[in-house]
Amino acid sequence: MSCKNEKDKTAETLDQKPMNVLFIAVDDLRPELNFYGANHIQSPNLDKLADESLVFNRAYCNIPVCGASRASLLTGMRPTRHRFINYSTRADTDAPNAISLPKLLKQNGYTTISNGKIYHNNDDDSLAWDNRWFPKGNIRNYQLEKNIIENGSANLAMGGASAFEMADVDDSAYFDGKIAQKGIADLKMLKNKNKPFFLALGFMKPHLPFNAPKKYWDIYDRSKIELPDSYTQPESTPKQAFHNFGELRNYGNIPKKGDVPDALAKQLIHGYYACVSYVDAQIGLVLDELKRLELEEDTIVILWGDHGWNLGDHKLWCKHVTFETALRTPMVIKVPGKTKGQKTNAIVEYIDIYPSLTELIGIAAPNTVDGQSFVPILDGQQPEKDWAVSKFKDAVTLIKGDLFYTEWTKDDGVAYARMLFDHKTDPLELDNLAEKSEYQDIVKQLATELRAKWGKDFLVDSKPLK
């Protein structure tokens, strides 16, 4: 059979057979990966997936906090001042009338399975799933006795345990190893069913604490790890842009105030790298099984991190800010017959994932979805939309071209602080242009555009009354 006929056959299959979806979420994953130009983290399985996918160089979450980001992505709806706010957000509370992506697929004959962390609350949007599973045990998942004792029964409200752990254990000791094995078992089960599937795997690392088997720590030489070039907080940046990274300070070996000491900072970066390599290995096991079961040609694979993460950038740790380091995310999509390692600089938002997947599998998205399909990019077309909007608390950011413009506003929409960075000349976001006289015309234009694009119900109380 000729190459042309093989392509025609693939296209015909795409048109006629409902595609499966393998939906992989990775908690706190930065786009600090080889296929984004970095070369110091070993992630061979993600690299291989990228070589078979469309890689989005400019994908942005709509809010840099896990629960809200996931609820927004899975409903395709923008966060507002009153909807999708923080880590504990529930989609079924903030948007009870929305038909989520898994619910829509379930309604259209898909088997839907949630493993690990997909929504922040495992029982959120429960009717969307045929099966929900999460590993048993304390969510911090320590393996060393000292950390288990010091953590006690603390879960989200941590005890005195370390922010990282290097345990000489098998991969399956930690949650992500168990999540991978559950995913593999589900693929074997789904292989024999006549229904298409939406299999969601939510991996936990590299979320804090940076716990990974010792062999992944051993990959890296800490003496070669350096602090980021942006390890500073310029006076021109509004004080509202910075925070005390309380999520990290809750751990027992982190100082309660002030900068993290350099040696400890490098130890944290080391732990983050180890966790990325660990989760990469687990994802590789699942992708290998997908291939072994001969499901590759029938399955769309999309992988995304729920938001960015600061590893000392601006002397910050964690997320919860609107610097690019917290907003820009890794995202790749593998579509049989369509992707082969292409890269795009088109700006996409996480709310665009929902309508893109529904278009690819031939199901109409509901009118509650705010996102715009990026499927034309898969066909080599230039998308019409060239911007994204992200927010966190009072801060709301317009990303357009090389410009990142943020305003802090109250309920009336009037700004009380602002910042503007031009990534063409300042990719590290160290020179705030918003208060410079020569940029006032640009600021005025961006302020108008921000309000036009942040959503029709951004300022109104869009949450249902309790």
TrEMBL record:
Keyword Nucleotide-binding attributed: no
Domain Sulfatase N-terminal stretches: 20-363
InterPro entries: Alkaline_phosphatase_core_sf, IDS, Sulfatase_N
UniProt KW Metal-binding keyword: yes
Cofactor: Ca(2+)
Signal peptide feature range: none
SUPFAM superfamilies assigned to the protein according to its UniProt record, in alphabetical order: Alkaline phosphatase-like
Swiss-Prot/TrEMBL keywords: Calcium, Hydrolase, Metal-binding, Signal
Similarity remark: Belongs to the sulfatase family.
Annotated PANTHER family: IDURONATE 2-SULFATASE
Entry protein name: Sulfatase
Source species of the chain: Algibacter agarivorans
